[in-house]
């Protein structure tokens, strides 16, 4: 009886050790892959940071209507954000490659499906970045234009335009990620329609005076009355 | 019923000219008779210069037709504009700049001694004051002759508030209309300007904005001629921000290009002047500035996020105080306005935000200055208005150390 127990324990220990020994090359490969990816990631990040700094990327981004570097909430500089994102993605890729080296069916399947999903994630990130740049640029254009037209609801218009573009961007990004596409479409339709309706109401109610003045001006033009304006700018 | 044939105006002959003493580029619409009268007037200058006039093809009918007027005299010659200015889409400054460049090219080809650009409508640009623009070029060997128009108090406000005092402060010469647009230019200067066409007057620096600063930086001989009034187009209130952006962008871009030159200049001296001052009647009635003040107050409320990026905290604080003033007491102090202009010029250089956004967001501030100026000037006569503008120009000069400090150390010097 005792002998049988001893034999079973020896067998299971042997099996455990064999499995463990099987894992060792994979673990070593994982460690090596992660180490290499860390070195590669930081190296590439440093190169990207240097290139972007020499291109004055932060200033250019500000010029395109993006927030200036001093206001960047997450990190102090978009250059730093991009370089760190590149480093992080290389490290994650190295980790996934390392996992695939275990040669186990589930790990390689997991790695393969994650790798297949990466283009979607990258596409969604790109859509979000471009969308937020466009949203900021358009909202600033609308704000300045509306203020120069003496519209009291300039800020409302500007915020409305920014949210319209942002909602559209987020919906496109989620569509790209294939997350609950049906719900996203429905929610996007409701939100987009809601914002447009709210803006239309706000502008319609707020621009009564403007339209009245405009019509009066047109009527004066038709009747030949001259609006005396002493100021000449150029 | 027989229709009488309509008498056609004389069509000048387009001559294959080889050389001329003076090239006259008329950018404004002009009929052939007026152009011939203008050229005849210029030929009365000492030495009877041979005049070649640039004319629009569409104004004169078929090229090559012979006119009686041009058959009688060997001069003037008529040369078509090398490029049709009216077909060019784009901003007015760009179109005028294209016309200037074409005139310089033709002047170079004809080996002219001088070139005169007439951009004002011919009803205003009388032949005698165009002759006065040319005279210092041919007789006194000046390189650039700028006009000093007889102004009504509320005319040419962008020039009075920014362009003229800024040029005076930067380059140390009291020039009233550095951007013309009617200008007399010597061979030395137009040759240089024509060569800059390929030499890279780009980067937003328009030719019109860089003529006077370039001449002043190169120590060329510049003078002013007192001429009559110009007709200014009535403002389009929906378009003032575009106008501000179009005019100031080349000014600030040129300022960036010539930073090494203007940082050496300290005070200002008057330019040699010719001609007699033309006195215009000045209205002394009250003007309504409520709309401009409202625009400023709205800007102060909604454009803070943009102004925060451009203006230092002390200026923002003063603007907030200004926005709370009642209409009767509304005045923008000269030193505040001057620092605003300098800060926007710096932000334009640093590209703090998109340049178009930047300059358009300056419009409410400009209107605030106009409102304050209108309050001060409404009861003033011509001499009073002159004093107000002189005080502004002195404020620009006094604040120049602020500009130089901010320009050199934008991050460190931020009061």
CATH secondary-structure class of the largest domain in chain B: Alpha Beta
**CA-CA gap between termini of chain A:** 110 Å
How many strands of chain B?
A: 10
Mean pLDDT of chain A: 80
- The second-level CATH architecture of the largest domain in chain B is Alpha-Beta Complex
Q: What portion of residues of chain A is helical?
A: over 70%
Overall description:
Chain A is mainly α and 234 residues long. Chain A has 7 helices and no strands. Chain A is elongated. The termini of chain A are far apart. The model of chain A has no long low-confidence stretch (mean pLDDT 80). With 415 residues, chain B is of the alpha/beta class. Chain B has 2 domains: 253 residues, Alpha-Beta Complex (Spore Coat Polysaccharide Biosynthesis Protein SpsA, Chain A), CATH 3.90.550; 119 residues, no CATH class. Chain B has 18 helices and 10 strands. In chain B, helix 4 packs across helix 7 and helix 14 packs parallel to helix 18. Classes of the chains: A mainly alpha (234), B alpha/beta (415).
């Amino acid at each position: 009886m005792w002998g049988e127990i001893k034999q079973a324990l020896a067998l299971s220990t042997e099996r455990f050790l064999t499995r463990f020994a099987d894992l060792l090359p994979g673990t070593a490969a994982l460690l090596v892959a992660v180490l290499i990816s860390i070195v590669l990631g930081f190296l590439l990040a440093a190169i990207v940071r240097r290139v972007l700094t020499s291109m004055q990327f932060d200033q250019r981004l500000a010029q395109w209507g993006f927030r200036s570097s001093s206001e960047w909430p997450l990190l102090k500089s978009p250059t730093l954000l991009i370089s760190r994102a590149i480093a992080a993605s290389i490290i994650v890729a190295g980790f996934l490659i390392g996992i695939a080296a275990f040669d186990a069916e589930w790990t390689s399947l997991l790695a393969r499906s994650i790798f297949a999903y990466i283009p979607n994630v990258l596409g969604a990130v790109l859509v979000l970045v471009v969308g937020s740049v466009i949203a900021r640029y358009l909202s600033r254009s609308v704000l300045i234009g509306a203020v120069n037209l003496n519209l009291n609801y300039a800020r409302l218009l500007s915020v409305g335009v920014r949210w319209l573009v942002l909602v559209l961007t987020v919906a496109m990004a989620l569509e790209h990620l294939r997350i609950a596409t049906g719900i996203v479409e429905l929610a996007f339709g409701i939100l987009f329609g809601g914002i447009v309706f709210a803006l239309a109401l706000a502008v319609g109610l707020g621009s009564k005076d403007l339209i009245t003045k405009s019509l009066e001006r047109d009527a004066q033009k038709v009747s030949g009355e001259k609006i005396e304006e002493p100021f000449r700018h150029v | 019923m027989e229709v009488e044939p309509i008498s056609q105006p004389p069509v000048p002959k387009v001559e294959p000219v080889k050389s001329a003493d003076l090239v006259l580029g008329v950018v404004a619409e002009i009929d052939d008779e007026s152009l011939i009268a203008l050229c005849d007037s210029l030929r009365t200058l000492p030495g009877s210069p041979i005049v070649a006039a640039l004319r629009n093809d569409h104004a004169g009918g078929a090229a090559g037709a012979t006119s009686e007027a041009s058959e009688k005299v060997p001069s003037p010659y008529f040369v078509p504009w090398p490029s049709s200015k009216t077909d060019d889409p784009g901003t007015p400054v760009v179109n005028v700049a294209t016309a200037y460049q074409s005139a310089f090219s033709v002047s170079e080809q004809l080996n002219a001694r001088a070139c005169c650009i007439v951009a004002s409508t011919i009803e205003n640009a009388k032949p005698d004051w165009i002759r006065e623009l040319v005279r210092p070029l041919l007789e006194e060997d000046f390189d650039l002759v700028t006009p000093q128009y007889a102004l009504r108090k509320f005319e040419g406000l962008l020039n009075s508030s920014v362009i003229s005092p800024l040029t005076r402060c930067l380059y140390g010469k009291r020039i009233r209309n550095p951007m013309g647009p009617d200008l007399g230019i010597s061979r030395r200067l137009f040759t240089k300007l024509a060569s800059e066409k390929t030499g890279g007057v780009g980067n937003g620096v328009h030719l019109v904005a860089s003529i006077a600063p370039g001449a002043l930086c190169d120590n060329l001989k510049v003078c002013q001629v007192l001429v009559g009034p110009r007709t200014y187009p009535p403002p389009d209130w929906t378009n003032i921000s575009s106008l501000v952006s179009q005019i100031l962008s080349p000014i600030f871009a040129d300022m960036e290009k010539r930073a090494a030159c203007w940082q050496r200049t300290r005070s200002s001296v008057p330019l040699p002047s010719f001609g007699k001052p033309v006195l215009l009647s000045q209205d002394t009635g009250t003007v309504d500035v409520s709309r401009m003040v409202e625009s400023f107050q709205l800007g102060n409320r909604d454009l803070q996020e943009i102004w925060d990026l451009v203006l230092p905290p002390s200026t923002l604080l003063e603007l907030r105080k200004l926005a709370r003033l009642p209409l009767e007491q509304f005045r923008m102090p000269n030193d505040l306005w001057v620092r605003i202009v300098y800060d926007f010029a710096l932000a334009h250089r640093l590209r703090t935000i998109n340049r178009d956004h930047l300059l358009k967001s300056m419009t409410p501030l400009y209107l605030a200055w106009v409102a304050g100026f209108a309050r001060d000037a409404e009861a003033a006569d011509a001499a009073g208005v002159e004093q107000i503008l002189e005080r502004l120009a002195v404020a620009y000069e006094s604040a120049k150390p602020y500009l130089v400090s901010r320009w050199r150390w934008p991050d460190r010097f931020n009061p």
